[in-house]
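REQUEST FORM: STRUCTURE PREDICTION
Request ID: SP-0412
Submitted by: Lab K.M.
Chain count: 1
Length (residues): 509
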Amino acid sequence: MGLPLPRNAVPMNDSSQDSTASQALDGPLDAPLDIRALMANIRASVAKEIETHGRQRPAFKPEASSPSTTGTRKAGELLQSEELRYLNSNYSFSSRLNFDGLQSHRPGFLGRTIVAVKRKLMRVIFDSLLKEYFAAERDFNANVVRMFNDISKYVDSRDASNFWELIRKIDVDTTKALERIERLSDEYGASLRSTERRVFDELYAGLREVNGLVTTLQGSSQRHEASLKTLDSVARGLEGAVARVSAPLSSASAPSASAQQASETSAKAPDQSYVLLENRFRGSEAEIRERLTIYPPLFAVDRFGGDPAVASSEVLEIGSGRGELQILFKEAGIPARGIDMDGAMVQVAAERGVKTAFGDGLRALEEAPDRSLRGVIAIQVVEHLTRQQLETLMKLCSQKVRAGGVVVFETINPQSLTALSSNYFRDPTHVWPMHPDTLSYMMTLGGLDVQEVRLLSPVPDGALLRSLAVEDYMTPRWMEMVTLFNHNISRLNSLLYGHQDYCVIAKVP
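STATUS: Completed
RESULT:
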């Protein structure tokens, strides 16, 4: 059962009848509508269309659908739409019939009677004629709304499934593309590393060969140079020993020795063996002089505030040896005297015009007046003393040196295996190696204030273990490996080829 169209309405979705309908509707809106003419025009148009195209169906032409061109609707919007909610709420409109709303414009009893009759009549008409119609209409509407609900759920679930299927496909395609990229990157990286490795191996082989030749030449040159220096030092020592072998030590040059020691020393020539040992292994006089230049500034008068009493006081050197440090004190204008228990050493120093004496350093320090010395220094001496002698030396230094005076002890560094195995054990007169911490602690127990522990006599760079160079063409893994190797080489050099000597500088409180 259809509803009549308004006079100005045009049927929708019928493109074949648009022109005919528009022609039939031409004219004023108030003119009567000629239904027969309109239907005749429609029949003529349909007959012409059949004659032209036959009874074949028109070809289906699909159109591309894109969310960006077909609209802005979102997935899930249909199920939550306001229209669907309205249909679910209002599909049964027969239940909203209100017979009590019937009214009459007539007043009084007559109006009420008319209203009652109208209500009774409407109920009879509804119950006998319209009730079944409205019930059928309500069932129809309920099924239509139910179908709309199912369609909405289906469309939304299909959209969601398509969306997640698209997401999964994009994820799979992206994963495959990344795997392909990573595989190509690995292949390229492996090829590049292989090429770098071949180039590096060839370059390294050539550089290693050249470096080996250069190292061999440098080692040979250094050994020859060291041998020439040793030969020159031994020759000079032999010349001096031969010149002094017939000149016994006089009693005047040994004022601190006892009468028995003086008679024994005058009866025979001084023993030249230790002088020759010094000349051969400790180094030339020029090298020793260069090493000792750091000590005279420690005893300068300006470090004591220019006190005249300090300027006239002496520095006592225990174990003055060949007199190298005494010469430096003399050149710096610092009053100093040395004492040594080796007569040949004293004789060599006396020939150089420095103030030295033959005797025991501990006894000479003990005989000095209290607080009379500017300082005490002993170079390569403490390793020749016993523990009791060391304790006595520390106590005497804190007693005989004036307040603020300087006490310096230099000895072989046992933390360097090269110095310990070569320099220390080469001399048979050594008693015990002195660790820097041990010597500092003994000086502190003796009443001295330790100021500094200074490392001396570094090993030449040519004698150290060589590290590898980190080049730009190396891969990060090789760079890290070479860096770790160089770190271990540095630690090994510190252990094997550390500073050969050290000195402890202290003050008297």
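NOTES: The chain has a mean pLDDT of 78.
Reviewed by: T.R.
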